[in-house]
Design a protein that fits this description.
Rossmann fold, 14 helices, 5,6-Dimethylbenzimidazole Phosphoribosyltransferase, Chain: A, domain 1, 6-stranded parallel sheet, 6 strands, 2 domains, homodimer, alpha/beta
Chain lengths: 353, 353
């Protein structure tokens, strides 16, 4: 299968707009505060200026895209929850009653819920139905999906983004029982870290299940032998449809100069796939938080992103991304709404400083 | 001078409502997410339940109280900015153009600006004029203020809080050129840390001025010899009017079971005074962030509070407190707005977990 859409999208990803960043930095320095005294908030606004090309960026039209899919590997007992929870939570999202709905309302974002590969049909007109298949295969026994399904999952993510109107910033979130397992497998495959280093307890498993989970991931890598230099091979062999989808959303957003906000470990694995496909992606992504899942930090270090928050989050869905978007919004408001020393008639720092 | 109002206020401070906290914790555990998967956000909601006595607390009526005052010690060259910046920034607050105004709008809070002791008169009807004096004395030469002025500054803060209608949560912020110097002096006096350990570069001073600042603070402690066991003595001898005022606001809020959100180093010094007056204050306060100023972490460790954010902020005004309030609000919304497993028809964790 060809991957024209992926190539075209990557081809559109440019570098940051240095001129807009310089203008934003200069303005931050003339606002009525000691220079750099709003620390990371200032940096966020400057990065958004670089991404959007607008030296006075406003964060409007916030969107969190929450992608759901199932994972054949759950039959190995890697999760604390049964697979039926994936569609149940999707319905919960569509009713507006889940964690991501609450936090999206809190920050003034809309939530777009996408079925990328849930094992059952979602009977609801609000769902964006982009099912690539009814869940992945069990990666202990065979590849999660065919290579063309890996490509299709990314290209579907690109389409999902392109079909949205009015997006000023996008958070990527996930739902899928068992999906920390493929995320750990992807992270181990690409970063060459040991499985133990990149595997956590997901939704909360005991020691025995944790040891089993590590063995399952190790076996999935032995059985499938993904090529670390080929992110689509890694995605297809040990990944998931929501992970491919989120990678596609991230690529499409960057191609359109829209900031991408990573949520937790699973969306981090998607960011890692996107980054391996195109290293310029680093400049278009923000790491909202550092998850309890140990593999998440490994991913962020690999890409070279500093997380904004450290609140022991491990829910996924885009919840951390929502909080991250809120801080980015705050940083941009500082840049655009604060008075300058001149406009406010405030004295600047003494000259002998 | 008596300190009846302080004593009465402290007498009203109770313990956390354990029953409300247990109910909030139980509800968090039945919401449609793995237990504790929203980490600190969940803890925030449980603490607010304990403070307010409401197991389903909503954060309404957010207020940031920004208190301004001047400091005689600026004549020792401890700050990078001239003293005239204090009233200039107060006018900037009153026009709604400063950092705190932007972030307060961002979180839906109102800002109450109080003149606790600016060296000039503030000619604006919006100011809450509670001037105790026209700035403190130079602490290198004499006490910052008389003991009765220290008491009056705290009692004034109590009054400011009590005169507000509709406060659901309060952030305490500061403005005062030179006020990291008294904050370091207070911190060193109370925690017995060396001046070097608790002194930073404030609004941004070079090495030479930094060394001078450390010497100034050391000398202020030698000259005035504050009694570390008597927080009012410490406040009066090396503190400031805005610091006493914020301590009073914190005490009054706790007495009324309203959560208090500490901003940076200067409001941290106020929190330290309040905590030394009544250790139960710890339970009513949240540390919004950890400032770049090294003394701030010393204060938070001394009280035993974990900061929510670490964004290299060092502006003050209540800016970090605003961001902290926003996270506390998010945590409470999670508690009150999310569906439970039962109401959403979502399966719980497998029983053998």
């Amino acid at each position: 299968m060809k991957m024209e859409k992926i190539k075209t999208t990557i081809g559109k990803i440019e570098t940051l707009d240095k001129d807009a960043m310089e203008k934003a930095k200069k303005r931050q320095d003339f606002l009525t505060k000691p220079r750099e005294s709003l620390g990371v908030l200032e940096d966020l606004s400057i990065k958004v200026a670089g991404i959007t090309g607008n030296p006075m960026p406003e964060i409007k039209d916030k969107v969190v895209i929450t992608m759901a899919a199932d994972h054949g590997v759950v039959e190995e007992g890697v999760s604390a929850y049964p697979q039926e929870v994936t569609p149940q939570m999707v319905y919960n999202f569509l009713r507006g009653s889940a964690g991501i709905n609450v936090l999206a309302r809190h920050i003034g974002a809309r939530v777009v819920v996408v079925d990328m590969g849930v094992a059952t049909d979602i009977d609801n007109s609000e769902i964006v139905n982009k099912k690539v298949a009814y869940g992945t295969k069990n990666i202990v026994k065979e590849p999660a999906m065919a290579r063309d399904e890996g490509i299709r999952s990314i290209e579907t993510g690109i389409e999902v983004f392109e079909n949205l109107s009015c997006v000023g910033i996008v958070g990527i979130g996930d739902m899928g029982i068992g999906n920390t397992t493929p995320s750990s497998a992807i992270t181990a495959a690409i970063t060459s870290k040991s499985v133990g280093e990149v595997t956590g307890r997901g939704t909360g498993i005991d020691d025995e299940r944790y040891e089993n989970k590590v063995r399952v991931i190790e076996k999935s890598l032995e059985v499938n032998n993904p090529d670390p230099k080929d992110p689509i091979d890694v995605l297809a062999k040990v990944g998931g449809f929501e992970i491919g989808g989120m990678a596609g959303v991230a690529l499409a957003a960057a191609a359109n100069r829209i900031p991408v906000v990573i949520d937790g470990f699973i969306s981090g694995a998607a960011a890692l796939i996107a980054y391996e496909l195109e290293p310029k992606m680093k400049d278009f992504m923000f790491a909202s938080h550092c998850s309890v899942e140990s593999g998440h930090k490994v991913i962020l270090d690999h890409i070279g992103l500093e997380p904004l928050l450290d609140l022991n989050l491990r829910l996924g869905e885009g919840t951390g991304a929502a909080l991250g978007i809120n801080l980015i919004d705050a940083g941009c408001k500082i840049l655009t709404e604060m008075a300058t020393f001149e406009s406010a008639g405030v004295s600047e720092k003494s000259e002998n400083q």
